[in-house]
Description:
Blueprint: H1 11-17, H2 33-59, H3 68-88, H4 95-121, H5 126-147, H6 151-167, H7 173-223, E1 226-231, E2 237-240, H8 242-248, H9 260-263, E3 264-266, H10 277-283, E4 287-294, E5 304-312, E6 318-327, H11 329-343, H12 353-364, E7 375-383, H13 385-392, H14 394-412, E8 417-422, E9 425-431, H15 436-451, E10 454-456, E11 459-461, E12 464-472, H16 479-495, E13 501-503, H17 506-525, E14 531-540, E15 546-557, E16 561-563, H18 565-575, H19 578-593, E17 601-606, H20 608-611, H21 616-627, E18 634-639, H22 647-660, E19 663-669, E20 686-689, H23 691-694, H24 704-717, E21 721-725, H25 730-739, E22 743-745, H26 755-764, E23 782-792, E24 795-804, E25 808-812, E26 824-828, E27 835-843, E28 846-851
Parallel strand pairs: 12-13, 15-17, 17-18, 18-19, 19-20, 20-21, 21-22
Antiparallel strand pairs: 1-2, 1-6, 3-4, 4-5, 5-6, 7-9, 7-12, 8-9, 10-11, 14-15, 14-22, 15-16, 23-24, 23-26, 24-25, 25-28, 26-27, 27-28
Helix pairs in contact: 2-3, 2-4, 2-5, 3-4, 4-5, 4-6, 6-7, 13-14, 14-15, 17-18, 19-21, 21-22
Amino acid sequence: xxxxxxxxxxxxxxxxxxxxxxxxxxxxxxxxxxxxxxxxxxxxxxxxxxxxxxxxxxxxxxxxxxxxxxxxxxxxxxxxxxxxxxxxxxxxxxxxxxxxxxxxxxxxxxxxxxxxxxxxxxxxxxxxxxxxxxxxxxxxxxxxxxxxxxxxxxxxxxxxxxxxxxxxxxxxxxxxxxxxxxxxxxxxxxxxxxxxxxxxxxxxxxxxxxxxxxxxxxxxxxxxxxxxxxxxxxxxxxxxxxxxxxxxxxxxxxxxxxxxxxxxxxxxxxxxxxxxxxxxxxxxxxxxxxxxxxxxxxxxxxxxxxxxxxxxxxxxxxxxxxxxxxxxxxxxxxxxxxxxxxxxxxxxxxxxxxxxxxxxxxxxxxxxxxxxxxxxxxxxxxxxxxxxxxxxxxxxxxxxxxxxxxxxxxxxxxxxxxxxxxxxxxxxxxxxxxxxxxxxxxxxxxxxxxxxxxxxxxxxxxxxxxxxxxxxxxxxxxxxxxxxxxxxxxxxxxxxxxxxxxxxxxxxxxxxxxxxxxxxxxxxxxxxxxxxxxxxxxxxxxxxxxxxxxxxxxxxxxxxxxxxxxxxxxxxxxxxxxxxxxxxxxxxxxxxxxxxxxxxxxxxxxxxxxxxxxxxxxxxxxxxxxxxxxxxxxxxxxxxxxxxxxxxxxxxxxxxxxxxxxxxxxxxxxxxxxxxxxxxxxxxxxxxxxxxxxxxxxxxxxxxxxxxxxxxxxxxxxxxxxxxxxxxxxxxxxxxxxxxxxxxxxxxxxxxxxxxxxxxxxxxxxxxxxxxxxxxxxxxxxxxxxxxxxxxxxxxxxxxxxxxxxxxxxxxxxxxxxxxxxxxxxxxxxxxxxxxxxxxxxxxxxxxxxxxxxxxxxxxxxxxxxxxxxx
Length: 871
């Protein structure tokens, strides 16, 4: 910063301070205009004193000097004083010129007054001498007062007084005293001049700072978000930044002059604002960061933060409040948007997972003293939505989710809160509702609404919905338990065929716990050597030669015993163990097949998860090399589900596997989701016909034979072999041979056996297989668990129906004394006409019955009525 506050030390600075020369820095130069105005104001009084002394001198007698000199001095005094008055009134003279003129008339006046004072003192009359002395001293004093603001002219006048005394012959002590007084006046005047200069510099600096501050404040108010305010001691606004004043002005009325708490009102919801503005204004205490908005109704969209403090002077007197504020409107809007994004789903506008969890917690957290209010939770999952994303793209999927949200909102209405948890999962909270009938109706309505076709981009899209339902407090009193149980119910709905709703049941939790325990045990099964392979024969239809075996994994649990692959393979796929298990199966099957004849192949199933692994060809090549078998002896069985993934990657995987020389087999043909188009490009060597098309094909009237014939014809035209799976009876062997299948696989040639038994079978049979199954086919039986009521000779009782076919069934819970064969009874399976039946065998509380008439299996789809134990 420039050192404009340094005291002047040079002669040039002193002359400038006395007004004799202009200052070097015009910005810091002393302003003499106020001093000149002071002299002009006081000079008429000095002129009167001059006239008084002149009059007394002229008309009071002139002894002993005579009349000429006093008159001349008096006239000269008056003329000089009047000339000074006229010169001071000239409009175009600058203050510096005025000072220079004063330096001319000031010493003249000083000398003239001294001479007149001395002249009056020489009069012979004492009263006259005293009067002249008083008048002369008064004139000198008046002149000194008038010239006091002009430092240099005052010094000149004092110097003229001392000089006049010297000319009048005053010597000795009087002249020394006058000279001493003059020196004191000189020193004082110089110090005062320098003080004037400093004070002027400070004032100018403060003025410039004030102007700068004012400019910055105005710029800040006009450009920034901040503003300022001030009140008087009564709390009325005396200043308010223009932009805020315009924002709070109602009907064009200025807020100035109004109480601060009448112009603004506080946001009571903001933290830290327990005390009001009125409290602080009345108690004269400061406050900080209070959130306020306009007090005018209808202007609630503007928000500010305000701070203030009381203003007290040096005497402790209160003058009002002064403070500042900041605009919070955009911040509030941003916070509202952030809150919306934090609580609402950005795609559908529904409540998101966080809000649904908070709402469920709040709904379930009820006072212990009040009656408990039940709450129902719907957990929804869209069926076939992933296929829409995979085939039509995520943009179409997003548009579909938006329409699903709208339908869901319409279906639920005001009954509850609807939210999206993410992906295609939705949730509905229904407070105060636990009626099973109404909930079932709502569930069916939601499923029906969401299952209606959607029109997106000119395309018609159909999906489904499954719902799991849990009701508090019976299914859980906290949100975590309730959500878990609703999820279990949803899992049950999907397991029951999708497109349905299911309520939570206690056994679902037991099943989930068993599944979790199964997963934990499965993680250690490989390490503990609990898994092993068995092999099912694949026989040539033409000559019954054993051409290969399919490797099937089995799990012998140390506590549970044998666990079906249908139970643990889905668990392995879900928990990520299927790849390690699949690799173990592949390596083990190749090693064990190496001990078989070279013409016998081994088939290994490859899950879609394994097929998607880019390292699969390397794993297969390593397994073949380590076992030392020919690549064509390994047959990889692949299901149709692999074609749902990326087509380019699928084609590359097929090419890589065929490049190794292994055989590829399409497993479970006809049961997947893809079309026949993939058969044109996929390099399969064999098609395996699913057992659902083979079983019952030999029964008269069954259409499966026609389906098998069509598949065989399709495979033959493409140059592929066919294997009929699930062949169990000997009459099916002849049918399969007639239909043209090249290979047979099923229990008719034996159950799956371990590798040692396979080697023994190949050695004993010389490579040929003998049929072992039933000779004739029978209608397939459906395994069910359903209650039924039997009537034997008028006695009624409840039994459990296990297996059923159109011709008969197996019953549990019916014991007989003695031989029961031939016993006639009536069975009530559904609410309807009872079936007449005859007992054909009975053992250990179980029995097999033959129906008198063919049973319509479609009647099983009817929900059974709740049965009570018969007496």
